[in-house]
């Protein structure tokens, strides 16, 4: 899916105005490769330093016990943690909110291309938006990166299937199919 400049600008404002996207920014990654900082430059997310309060919302947390599902779409805010994968231990995710883990997806970013569950902040936020049925908004976020469209292409089938689920248990069941394929 390609988004032209006019559509991208309209989608940018729609993303920013109708759904609060927040990032707890730890600043321990290369600033030149930081997807959260780039999204903030386009006013698509609000960055929160670790010494400030991060708003309550659905927190994307790989250590969460429940999977993100369309049932979580009523939340007013999505919150992601932007930190190095080396320091992404459970303690770093002590943020207020309803913690949810993204289901199985494959990274498209140049650093972790093809690796399962090694998503950048923009990939995590876009995945959540796609699962919530806001695929165009996910594409608008990803359009700021030359490799962004590849994320939706690589994960087209699972994202569509997760978006069709009613709740976390259904998402986990669908995820299990992808995990079983990987073990074959």
UniProtKB/TrEMBL annotation:
GO molecular function: rRNA small subunit aminocarboxypropyltransferase activity; S-adenosyl-L-methionine binding
Occurrences of domain 16S/18S rRNA aminocarboxypropyltransferase Tsr3 C-terminal (ranges): 58-179
Localization (cell): Cytoplasm
Record has rRNA processing as a keyword: yes
Entry's Gene Ontology BP terms: enzyme-directed rRNA pseudouridine synthesis
Entry GO terms, CC: cytoplasm
Keywords recorded for this protein, A-Z: Cytoplasm, Ribosome biogenesis, rRNA processing, S-adenosyl-L-methionine, Transferase
Predominant cellular place of this UniProt entry's protein: cytoplasm
Statement: the UniProt record of this protein carries the keyword rRNA processing: yes
Segments forming domain RNase L inhibitor RLI-like possible metal-binding: 21-51
Binding-site positions, S-adenosyl-L-methionine: 35, 81, 102, 121
EC nos: 2.5.1.157
Function: Aminocarboxypropyltransferase that catalyzes the aminocarboxypropyl transfer on pseudouridine corresponding to position 914 in M.jannaschii 16S rRNA. It constitutes the last step in biosynthesis of the hypermodified N1-methyl-N3-(3-amino-3-carboxypropyl) pseudouridine (m1acp3-Psi).
Membership in a protein family: Belongs to the TDD superfamily. TSR3 family.
Protein name: 16S rRNA aminocarboxypropyltransferase
Species of the source: Halobellus litoreus
């Amino acid at each position: 899916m390609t988004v032209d400049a006019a559509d991208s600008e309209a989608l940018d404002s729609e993303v920013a105005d109708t759904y609060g996207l927040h990032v707890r920014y730890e600043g321990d990654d290369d600033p030149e490769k930081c997807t959260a900082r780039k999204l903030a430059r386009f006013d698509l997310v609000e960055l929160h330093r670790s010494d400030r309060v991060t708003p309550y919302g659905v927190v994307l947390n790989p250590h969460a016990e429940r999977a993100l599902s369309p049932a979580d779409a009523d939340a007013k805010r999505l919150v992601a943690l932007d930190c190095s994968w080396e320091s992404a231990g459970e303690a770093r995710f002590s943020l207020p909110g309803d913690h949810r883990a993204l289901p199985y997806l494959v990274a498209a970013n140049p650093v972790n291309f093809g690796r399962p569950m090694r998503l950048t902040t923009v990939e995590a936020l876009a995945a959540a938006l796609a699962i919530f049925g806001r695929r165009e908004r996910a594409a608008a976020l990803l359009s700021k990166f030359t490799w962004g469209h590849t994320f939706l292409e690589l994960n087209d089938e699972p994202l569509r299937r997760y978006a069709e689920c009613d709740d976390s248990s259904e998402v986990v069941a669908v995820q299990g199919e992808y995990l079983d394929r990987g073990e074959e």
